[in-house]
């Protein structure tokens, strides 16, 4: 068994442990290893990002794997990893995306709300905090300035970053980083404390009065009241720019705003010019040439976002979780497909949108990630989101695949011809051609890509993790490939079949009489059909949970629900299609509305509101609620 299937096994029905690098800052990315797995509880119902409308000053906050923006009416709009937003949030006037997977906002009434990773208590707002003017979410600690100018900090304290100096006095602005914290007081004095391994908390003696401060992973930058930018701390030249992230460009000029990322820095001049320097491995320091005048910038872990004067939000750099992809309005959906950590949907107009994990964007044969829609794709009739690859059938019957192709699963055969249906599995892909013939390719370690010679004409095919099933035009079901849990052994009394779904080590089929039958692995009761189910029209077998659409249009789910994936939203109503991923579920309502719920570690259940496309490393998009 190849190693990728170990990950596939874990992700489909068992806890998945993921470790990442710790290049973190404000606002930036991944948390330190917490002593416990703890998340501040929010409403886990499906979240659809609101359409941006007008009022209040807009703001963008870029984290390591997540981006949030506020529109003029204070609506919060987030995408990327861990992009859930509480449904009862209300209007917001400031947002800060933390480095360790938590987010904090200041509501219009001054209340502070935090959610997400809470392993060190960073998302637990002190009960006696009072109204807040500004908040900064660090890697695993949080600091807030109250309306009275008092500073409060809480969370991880390894470097002493949450211990506020007794003689601090009133504060006007705070910036919380990895292991240090800096503030500008109401008399324009800059104070820093916490870890000082690279001199990041040692304020230069000749700094003068400060108007703004921003702290990175191990460096600090401040704008003086005269508009001069000063940076100090870590300046290791191995991160990209030979001068390092704390060497300010000599020709920078007068500065109005600075934002420090994990290992890069960006500054906006008084003329609205944006300059970035430091690490540029993901293109985060390469400012788009056509950007124009900038009003605000936020440097994240490996991406950068800027709000321009003409009303555009621009993001560029790393995009593994879709955090640099600016969403639009999705509109009515005709079909959805839930993959391992990403989701794809086809709109009523044939446009394809994909969001969530985008980790496999560097394969030689397919230089885009599984959640990146090729810009030249055209109108689509069907999509299938697999483990780490995606395939779509255009309205002309052409098949396009992208993402991970280590086993050739995303490499479309040259002689394929016209396709009517596609199914992307673990590391293999299968299609039904217009003449009813089935073709499969990719990893074949269990024979899952070897089509039986006597199969005959097929109406539908389903590629699972390591096995494949097909329904012939006369209603016969055939399965082949891995059979360790008898998932490929078709029950002899099954009868005529109308639809099949091959999940992770188990199979479900709907007979022509509307009866559901499931067999194979059953560790979470995913193959145990409820006795009161009745007749069904469609089934989707996922990692460890199963969902069906009944003849009455109602959705039923069962099996593993550790991430809430089998818990159907109470207000869902009638649906016409459902798709189960590893640990998340998506359903299309009868009116074309899309709902997703369950695991959202890569933003796969956060529904965008228009086709998402990433071209090269940056994308320009107009957000009507950001500027008028």
Automatic annotation (TrEMBL):
**MF GO annotations:** guanyl-nucleotide exchange factor activity
A Pfam family reported for this protein in Swiss-Prot or TrEMBL: RCC1_2
Q: Which GO terms describe its cellular component?
A: cytoplasm
Name used for this protein in its record: Chromosome condensation regulator RCC1
Q: Which organism is it from?
A: Candidatus Chloroploca asiatica
């Amino acid at each position: 068994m190849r190693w990728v299937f170990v990950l596939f096994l874990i992700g489909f029905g068992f806890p998945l442990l993921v470790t990442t690098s710790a290049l973190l800052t404000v606002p930036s990315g991944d948390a330190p290893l917490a002593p416990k797995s703890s998340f501040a509880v929010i409403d886990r119902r499906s979240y659809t990002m609101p359409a941006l409308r007008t009022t209040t000053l807009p703001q963008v906050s870029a984290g390591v794997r997540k981006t949030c923006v506020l529109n003029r009416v204070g609506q919060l709009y987030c995408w990327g990893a861990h992009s859930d937003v509480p449904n009862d949030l209300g209007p917001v006037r400031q947002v800060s995306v933390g480095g360790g997977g938590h987010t904090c906002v200041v509501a219009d009434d001054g209340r502070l709300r935090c959610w997400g990773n809470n392993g060190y208590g960073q998302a637990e707002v002190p009960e006696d905090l009072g109204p807040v003017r500004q908040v900064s979410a660090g890697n695993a600690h949080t600091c807030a300035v109250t309306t009275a100018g008092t500073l409060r900090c809480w969370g991880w304290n390894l470097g002493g970053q949450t211990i506020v100096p007794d003689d601090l006095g009133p504060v006007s602005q705070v910036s919380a980083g990895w292991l240090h914290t800096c503030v500008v007081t109401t008399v324009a004095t800059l104070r820093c404390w916490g870890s000082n391994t690279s001199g990041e908390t040692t304020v230069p003696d000749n700094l003068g009065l400060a108007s703004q401060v921003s702290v990175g992973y191990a460096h600090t930058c401040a704008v003086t009241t005269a508009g001069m930018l000063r940076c100090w701390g870590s300046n290791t030249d191995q991160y990209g720019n030979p001068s390092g992230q704390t060497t300010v460009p000599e020709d920078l000029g007068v500065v109005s705003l600075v934002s420090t990322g994990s290992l890069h820095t960006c500054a906006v001049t008084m003329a609205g010019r944006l300059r970035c320097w430091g690490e540029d491995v993901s293109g985060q320091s390469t400012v788009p040439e056509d950007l124009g005048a900038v009003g605000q910038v936020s440097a994240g872990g490996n991406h950068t976002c800027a709000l321009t004067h003409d009303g555009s939000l621009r993001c560029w750099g790393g995009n593994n979780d879709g955090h640099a992809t600016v969403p639009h309005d999705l509109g009515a959906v005709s079909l959805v497909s839930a993959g391992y950590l990403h989701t794809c949907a086809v709109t009523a107009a044939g446009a394809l949108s994909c969001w969530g994990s985008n980790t496999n964007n560097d394969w030689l044969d397919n230089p885009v990630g599984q959640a990146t829609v090729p810009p030249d794709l055209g109108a689509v009739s069907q999509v299938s989101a697999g483990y780490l690859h995606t395939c779509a059938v255009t309205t002309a019957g052409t098949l396009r695949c992208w993402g991970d192709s280590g086993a050739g699963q995303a490499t479309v055969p040259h002689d394929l011809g016209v396709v009517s249906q596609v199914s992307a599995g673990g590391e293999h892909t299968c299609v039904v051609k217009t003449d009813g013939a089935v073709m499969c390719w990719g990893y074949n370690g269990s024979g899952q890509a070897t089509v039986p010679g006597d199969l005959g004409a097929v109406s539908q095919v389903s590629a699972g993790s390591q096995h494949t099933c097909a329904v012939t035009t006369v209603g016969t079901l055939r399965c082949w490939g891995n059979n360790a849990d008898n998932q490929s052994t078709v029950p002899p009394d099954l009868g005529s079949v109308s639809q099949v779904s091959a999940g992770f080590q188990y199979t479900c089929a709907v007979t022509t009489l509307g009866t559901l039958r499931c067999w194979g692995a059953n560790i979470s009761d995913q193959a145990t059909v409820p006795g009161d189910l009745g007749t069904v029209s469609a089934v989707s077998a996922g990692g460890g949970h199963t969902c069906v659409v009944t003849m009455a249009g109602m959705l039923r789910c069962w099996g593993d629900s550790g991430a809430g994936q089998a818990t159907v939203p109470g207000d869902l109503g009638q649906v016409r299609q459902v798709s189960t991923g590893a640990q998340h579920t998506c359903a299309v309502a009868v009116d074309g509305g899309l709902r997703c719920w369950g695991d959202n570690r890569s933003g796969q259940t956060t529904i965008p509101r228009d086709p998402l496309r990433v071209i090269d490393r940056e994308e320009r998009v107009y957000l009507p609620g950001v500027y008028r």
